[in-house]
Design brief:
The complex is a heterodimer of chains A (240) and B (353). Chain A is an all-alpha fold and 240 residues long. Chain A has nine helices and no strands. Chain B is an alpha+beta fold. In chain B, the strands form three sheets. In chain B, strands 1-2-3-5-4 form a five-stranded antiparallel beta sheet, with helices on both faces. In chain B, α6 runs antiparallel to α8. The chains are: A mainly alpha (240), B alpha+beta (353).
């Protein structure tokens, strides 16, 4: 199983001079990071649902408008860590501004630690391994797999592979305890297939999912090194 | 959105091997090591669950494939209740080698010891570990990676020694008696001099140095001593929070057996530990193989004697010590005799009055 090489990094594409490409890239970044960003705001900053949605939305808008994403330097760490640092600074700033307004103060945003005079994030580093990072990473992995599953579902729909996805959904996607997970023979009876076909379909779906996850991962990482490191962390082993 | 359970499973299944064309269906991942991954799989032909060890994708090469096949053959040769039986060896469509073995339920020894076992229970478990290891030695196989993580204890107390992946064959030199000879014709797969295999904390010094020629049954005796150390103190040798001087000092046991610097004597960690038991542990852990037990049988014999309250070869006893042990071992008859004597004396005194 080889690494997919064809998908260009959208993290790098956000600085493209082509406005359309930039927009597509941002869309891909938002798709991968919306949920981790939302949940981070929700739980780290104890924001209510609507407030967390607004802050997440505002963050991506500000990231685009102020060029934070384009300013990312792959040599200085993972994109995920950079984005998290930007998010932390953004939400902290928003909260301070909100607090000041409530007290009747003006709406002038005072530079935060980690932001420059324009309120834009400097190179904040959040050390890998902190709980904050781990939680963000977990949500990011969940989002990435969810995107890959959705892509696989769409690819299979209406084709001869629809049965493969249906089997995959029954066997691997549905929550089962080890004791109540159906056997291949049960699935074969349910789908009126030989057991060997169940094996084949499941293997195909898992392999396709893996390829899709790696494709998505390549899109949202900026360098080969970052891609490989993230793939190892995500899949538990070095894919070859 | 995916649940945590679904996410964990998807992360696993994208790594799962292709079992197309085999009689197995994968159900979950059990363990992952450097060389291979162990899965629970369903054997459709025999309608039973088995453990399937498959070479990891990143380790898949001809050498590892040969190693896994040898491991399977080694285990298959060692038919013993304390060694997990191998059912089948095969190749996946992608060329990776796998073997199927009995699915073992139970706890790993390190988990079991942390769960709290009495001293006698712990020693009985160690005696059960000695049995398959001695059996393997009698068949010319040295395990070389004995450690608590490689021992499973089943729900009925059955003990299984696992992971024979780095076992060494000495076909010319059965070593059950403890005698060791270099094989006249080393096996073609013999580990090269300087190659270090095993787990550092449980590895005999000669093994840690990569001195392959000196690795024999006594290297496994060392590992069993290290497991005993762990079972007595809760720490691997050299890993406990020892006193500062223990990190540089070479401790010498009762029979002048020196252990490696940095290994604190067990009584520093467990002050009320019986000294004969500590002496057994330190003799097994001796720095020089010649100072260790000559074989696993000798170690097991000393452990058995300790359990029976008898003297052990590793611990020289004075007259007082022997008397104390005799008294402790025969407490009931001694008390009965004493009670009888006291009663006779009292009766005698009463009769005089």
């Amino acid at each position: 199983m080889a690494f997919p090489e064809t998908h260009r990094s959208v993290v790098l594409a956000v600085r493209s001079p082509d406005a359309q490409e930039r927009a597509r890239a941002l869309e891909a970044v938002v798709a991968a990071y919306w949920r981790p960003v939302y949940r981070h705001v929700r739980f780290r900053w104890r924001a209510r649902e609507e407030e967390a949605e607004d802050l997440a939305q505002g963050f991506f808008a500000a990231a685009l408008e102020k060029g934070w994403l384009a300013r990312y330097d792959p040599a200085r760490g993972r994109f995920r860590s950079y984005l998290l640092a930007c998010l932390e600074a953004y939400v902290a700033n928003e909260k301070r501004a909100e607090h000041r307004l409530k007290r009747g103060g003006g709406a002038v945003i005072v530079p935060l630690e980690g932001t420059d005079a324009d309120g834009e994030p400097r190179e904040l580093q959040i050390a890998d391994g902190t709980d904050l990072e781990a939680e963000f990473q977990h949500e990011w992995a969940r989002g990435l797999f969810a995107l890959a599953v959705a892509a696989l579902r769409a690819r299979c729909a209406g084709t001869s592979r629809a049965v493969a996805f249906a089997l995959f959904e029954r066997y691997d996607l549905e929550d089962h305890d080890a004791s109540d997970r159906p056997r291949y023979a049960d699935l074969a009876a349910e789908f009126a297939l030989p057991v060997t076909q169940v094996t084949n379909h499941l293997h195909w779906a898992r392999r396709e999912l893996r390829t899709t996850v790696l494709e998505k991962l390549r899109e949202i990482t900026a360098s080969e090194e970052e891609f490989r490191a993230e793939a190892r962390a995500l899949l538990g082993a070095e894919p070859s | 959105m995916l649940s945590d359970g679904a996410l964990d499973r998807l992360r696993q299944v994208t790594q799962w091997p292709d079992l197309t064309g085999t009689r197995y269906e994968l159900r979950g991942e059990v363990a992952r090591g450097g060389m291979g991954v162990v899965y629970v799989a369903r054997d459709r032909e025999l309608e039973r669950d088995v453990a399937l060890k498959v070479i990891a994708v990143e380790a898949a090469d001809a050498e590892t494939a040969g190693r896994l096949r040898r491991e399977a053959r080694t285990i298959a040769r060692l038919e013993h209740p304390g060694i997990v039986p191998v059912h089948d060896v095969g190749e996946l469509p992608d060329g990776r080698v796998f073997y199927a073995m009995k699915l073992v339920s139970g706890k790993r020894l390190d988990e079991l010891v942390q769960g709290g076992l009495s001293l006698r229970e712990r020693l009985r478990v160690l005696l059960r570990i000695c049995e398959p290891v001695a059996f393997a030695h009698a068949h010319g196989v040295i395990h070389r990676d004995l450690k608590p993580e490689n021992v499973m204890v089943g729900p009925f107390g059955e003990v299984l020694v696992m992971d024979w992946g780095v076992a060494k064959h000495r076909p010319e030199a059965p070593v059950a008696s403890g005698e060791t000879h270099a094989p006249a014709n080393p096996a073609p797969h013999a580990t090269a001099h300087g190659t270090i295999v095993g787990t550092p904390a449980y590895m005999a010094p000669e093994q840690a140095r990569g001195d392959v020629e000196r690795v024999d049954a006594r290297s496994d005796v060392y590992a069993l001593g290290a497991i005993l150390y762990f079972m007595l103190t809760g720490h691997a040798p050299g890993r406990p929070p020892a006193s500062p001087e223990a990190t540089t000092r070479t401790w010498v046991g009762p029979r002048h057996t020196a252990v490696a610097p940095g290994i604190a004597p067990p009584h520093e960690l467990v002050p009320d530990l019986p000294r004969p038991l500590e002496a057994i542990c330190l003799k097994a852990l001796a720095l020089e193989p010649e100072q260790r037990y000559a074989g696993v049988a000798e170690l097991a014999s000393d452990l058995g004697r300790f359990l029976e309250g008898e003297s052990v070869s590793a611990y020289p006893e004075g007259l007082l010590g022997r008397a104390r042990r005799f008294a402790s071992r025969h407490r009931t008859p001694i008390l009965l005799v004493l009670a009888y004597v006291v009663m006779r004396v009292v009766l005698l005194l009463v009769a005089r009055v």
